Amino acid sequence: MGNCHTVGPNEALVVSGGCCGSDEKQYVYGGWAWAWWCISDTQRISLEIMTLQPRCEDVETAEGVALTVTGVAQVKILTERELLAVACEQFLGKNVQDIKNVVLQTLEGHLRSILGTLTVEQIYQDRDQFAKLVREVAAPDVGRMGIEILSFTIKDVYDKVSYLSSLGKTQTAVVQRDADIGVAEAERDAGIREAEYKREMLDVKFMADTKVADSKRAFEMQKAAFSQEINIKTAQAQLAYELQGAKEQQKIRQEEIEIEVVQRRKQIDVEEQEVIRMDKELIATVKLPAEAEAHRMQEIAEGEKVKQVLIARAEGEKIRKIGEAEALVIEAIGKAEAEKMKLKAEAYQQYGEAAKMALVLDALPQIAAKVAAPLSKVDEIVILSGENNKMTTDVNRLLAELPASVHALTGVDLSKIPLIQKATGAQA
């Protein structure tokens, strides 16, 4: 197990050691790193800017003048991995003051060496070049420590023998002399220039007067032209004003027409809304109730239709059942009639002529009824005959001819029946 270490952007974290005897080092700034317990070591080093004030006292220049020079340097540890590793190797475990002392001694050494190669004038008059030279010479050595020189400036240069002040006095005297000469030459040149300026002034004045006259003439001409142009512009403006007034009146009338159109459209919209309202009211009060009534009547009609269909189906089923029952009855009656006929046939076959005779005798009343049917419509029959015995004779003749007629129709000879024989004999 281990811990998670975090570090800000102004500080670098160095994690040494790891699993399986690894000697790899991890450098982290502005981030985080994992360190194992007991087998990993974590150390921190500051990346903040360090301000140094190198000071070299009584250092002899190339001319042998002892000078004291102070400066200000801004340095910091580099964050590139290789240079950060070098800085950690040399300064890890030391505090910021120790690092400052090492870099300060290096800068002061280079500052001393460079002071011995320059003159006082070079150092005093061109401090920026002197500071640049120190920075360029000291940068490689400091860089091999993993440190970068951000800036280096010369703060002060002075001596204890008043050499710099003497240089200042000489320079001051030279400057004063040059100033006096310059004043005399300036006064001379000023007189000459003054005369020249006066002449030039008169020339300029003459030319100015001429130009003023020309300007007055041109002004009057221009004024007349301007007056004419103003009158033209005034007339044009008046016409434009009247034209614009007419246009504005036309626009106003057009706006009034548009307002009337909008009002009419609004009125039309209101009327359309009223029509829509009345239409909805009509729908709500007439159409919808009518549709509801129509729907109700349709539902009633559908119910009646279904009812009639069901009744028809029931009647059909009833008729079918009655038909089936009647068919069964007819079938039973038919079977009974067939059985009856079969029995009659068997009886007729068994009794022979006697059965046929009985059948004919049974049919005779029906035949007589059919024959006498037309007579049933006659209310009264009147027989006209002169003789009473003739009537009797005719009846007897009819009865005598009856067996022959039956024999002709059915093939049955009634004369063989004993009763008929007796009747026939009696008539004879």
Automatic annotation (TrEMBL):
Membrane is among the record's keywords: yes
Domain of life: Eukaryota
Repressor recorded as keyword: no
CDD domains according to UniProt: SPFH_flotillin
InterPro entries (UniProt xref): Band_7 (IPR001107), Band_7/SPFH_dom_sf (IPR036013), Flotillin_C (IPR031905), Flotillin_fam (IPR027705)
Family to which the UniProt record says this protein belongs: Belongs to the band 7/mec-2 family. Flotillin subfamily.
Subunit structure: Heterooligomeric complex.
Protein name: Flotillin
Biological source species: Podarcis lilfordi
